[in-house]
Structure formats: structure tokens, C-alpha cells
């Protein structure tokens, strides 16, 4: 069923709202790698990941406490643990370690593969099968993104590639479980409780990491830390999970086809990386693929 086949105007509005929310999440996520590079100007990789989790958990905990949100049902804690392990701990840690040796542009390769991986996880988890047109457009978009981002990184493999592929898998699992939970509780509560679940580990990790890794506070470092904590980890995941709950995991995941290109734009403007003249052509191709997947049943 396409969006135009929806039964009521209310459904169409919900789909449009969900697409907008998921797109806002993509924009927030697209800044994560450049912000992480900035953060590592002041913090070591382990310190940055641990402290960002603590700060994000404090923000989420404040909202949960102020609004007196009840503790999730016991059956929801296992999926929340998957969300926590995938998007709160696994993806940030593995990508941060990768960015010690990889450029922001090279790391964007993993984001190019993430929509397909998430759609595959969702298909297995929900037992839904997207149409052939959906998969054809998704594969084409992923191919464009991979070709473009690999070209930008010179086609070379780096030591951080294993970290990136590991991050791809754990993040897809976390997105899938988070999207399922967002259908029964608000998206901000999904990430909020996942952050709270990780808070004891994050506090302990911060204490240990800060004792062993030197800290040299600077403007870029502080801005980078604040963004990955409040922008990427809390706000980004909040709107992302809420959007997925409205338009479906598979369709929302395809919006991330634009994320590597956005990351490259931020890498140029914030980190001074050079952008190939092929970027506009790649952007148009990716947007066409996104349009096809959004009009195809997911």
C-alpha cells in the first residue's frame, strides 16, 4: 500500500509527521561523526563515550522524573537492553574508536549500509517482507552511497573498519527494537529508559576513563561533547523512534540514505575536509531512491 492508498486524511497526516520526525533524527545523526571528532580534541575515546552517556541520561532522567513517568513493564526491559547495548553503548563506542584512525567521510560508509541492515533486522524481527520495488530502490540507494563515500575516502581500508561494521550490526538491532517499543510507549521514553539502564555503567566508565585519559578542555571539545550527548543521543533518538513508530521501521531506515551525504557536508564545513564535485549528483540519486522507498509498502 502506498501513502496515497491510506484510508483517512488522519493517516496521511500521521505518515507526513512521522517522515518529518525521522528526517529530523537523520539530520541530528549526520552531525554525530564531526561532533565526535571535535569531542576527541578534548577527551579520549572512552571518556567521550562514557561522559556523553552520563550527560544524556541526566537529561532523560530529568524529563522522566518531572513528568512522573511510570517504570516500564517487565516485558519491556529485554528490548530496552537491546536498545541500550546497540545505540547507547555499542554504536557510539565502536564508531568513536574507529574515528581515531578513520576520517569522518570514511566512517560515513557504515551509515550508508545502515538502512539496509535495519530493514533486514526489521523484516526478520517483525516477519514483514517489503516489496521488490522497495528493496530494489533501497539497494540502488545504498549502492550510490557506498560508491560515493568509498570514493571520498580514497577507496582505502582502515584499521577501524572492523569497528565500523560491528557498529553497523549493533545499531541496526537497537533501531529495530527501539522502533518496536516506540509503538507502545513514546519514543523519548524508549531512549530515556535505555539511557537510565546504562547510567550505572556509564558513571563507572567515566570515573575509570577520566582517570587514565587526559582531558584538555577546548571550545570544539565541549561543543562536540554536548552535541553527541544532547543532540545525537537524546533529541536525535527521540524524534527518530517516534518517527519510526508512525511510518514503520523499514521506511524510516531508508531516510538514512541521505545521512552520509549530510555528514560529508558537515565534514567540509566543520572539519575542513574536501568534497568531490560528484556530491550533487549523488545527492539527487539518493533523494530519488528515498522517494521511491517512501511510496512503496514497508
Summarize the structure.
This protein has 298 residues and is mostly helical.
Overview features:
77% helix, 0% strand, mainly alpha, 12 helices, 298 residues
Structure description:
The chain is an all-alpha fold. Helix content is 77%, strand content 0%. The protein is built from twelve helices and no strands. The protein has helices spanning 9-30, 32-39, 45-66, 77-98, 104-126, 132-152, 161-181, 187-212, 219-247, 249-254, 259-271, 279-294. The longest helix is centred in the last third of the chain and has 29 residues, at 219-247. It is globular. The N and C termini lie close together (9 Å). Mean pLDDT is 84; it is low at 1-7.
Structural class: mainly alpha
Spell out the helices and strands N to C: HHHHHHHHHHHH
Strand portion = under 5%
Overall strand count: 0
What's the layout of helices and strands?
Blueprint: H1 9-30, H2 32-39, H3 45-66, H4 77-98, H5 104-126, H6 132-152, H7 161-181, H8 187-212, H9 219-247, H10 249-254, H11 259-271, H12 279-294
Helix pairs in contact: 1-9, 1-11, 2-9, 2-11, 3-4, 3-8, 3-9, 4-7, 4-8, 5-6, 5-7, 5-11, 6-12, 7-9, 8-9
Amino acid at each position: 500500500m502506498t501513502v496515497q492508498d491510506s484510508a483517512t486524511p488522519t493517516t496521511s497526516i500521521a505518515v507526513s509527521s512521522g517522515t518529518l520526525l525521522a528526517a529530523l533524527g537523520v539530520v541530528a545523526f549526520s552531525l554525530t561523526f564531526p561532533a565526535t571528532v571535535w569531542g576527541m580534541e578534548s577527551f579520549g575515546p572512552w571518556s567521550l563515550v562514557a561522559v556523553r552517556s552520563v550527560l544524556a541520561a541526566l537529561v532523560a532522567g530529568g524529563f522522566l522524573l518531572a513528568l512522573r513517568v511510570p517504570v516500564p513493564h517487565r516485558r519491556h526491559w529485554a528490548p530496552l537492553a537491546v536498545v541500550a547495548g546497540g545505540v547507547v553503548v555499542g554504536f557510539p563506542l565502536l564508531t568513536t574508536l574507529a574515528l581515531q584512525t578513520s576520517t569522518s567521510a570514511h566512517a560515513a560508509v557504515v551509515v550508508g549500509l545502515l538502512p539496509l541492515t535495519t530493514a533486514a533486522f526489521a523484516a526478520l524481527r517483525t516477519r514483514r517482507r517489503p516489496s521488490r520495488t522497495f528493496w530494489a530502490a533501497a539497494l540502488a540507494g545504498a549502492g550510490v552511497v557506498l560508491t560515493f563515500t568509498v570514493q571520498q575516502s580514497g577507496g582505502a581500508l582502515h584499521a577501524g573498519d572492523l569497528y565500523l561494521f560491528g557498529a553497523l550490526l549493533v545499531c541496526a538491532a537497537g533501531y529495530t527494537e527501539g522502533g518496536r517499543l516506540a509503538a507502545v510507549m513514546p519514543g523519548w521514553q524508549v531512549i530515556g529508559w535505555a539511557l537510565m539502564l546504562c547510567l550505572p555503567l556509564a558513571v563507572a566508565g567515566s570515573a575509570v576513563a577520566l582517570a587514565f585519559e587526559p582531558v584538555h578542555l577546548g571550545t570544539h571539545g565541549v561543543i562536540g561533547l554536548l552535541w553527541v550527548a544532547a543532540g545525537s543521543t537524546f533529541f536525535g533518538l527521540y524524534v527518530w523512534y517516534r518517527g519510526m513508530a508512525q511510518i514503520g521501521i523499514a521506511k524510516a531506515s531508508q531516510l538514512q540514505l541521505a545521512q552520509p551525504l549530510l555528514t560529508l557536508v558537515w565534514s567540509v564545513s566543520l572539519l575542513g575536509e574536501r568534497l568531490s564535485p560528484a556530491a550533487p549528483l549523488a545527492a539527487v540519486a539518493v533523494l530519488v531512491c528515498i522517494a521511491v522507498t517512501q511510496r512503496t509498502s514497508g
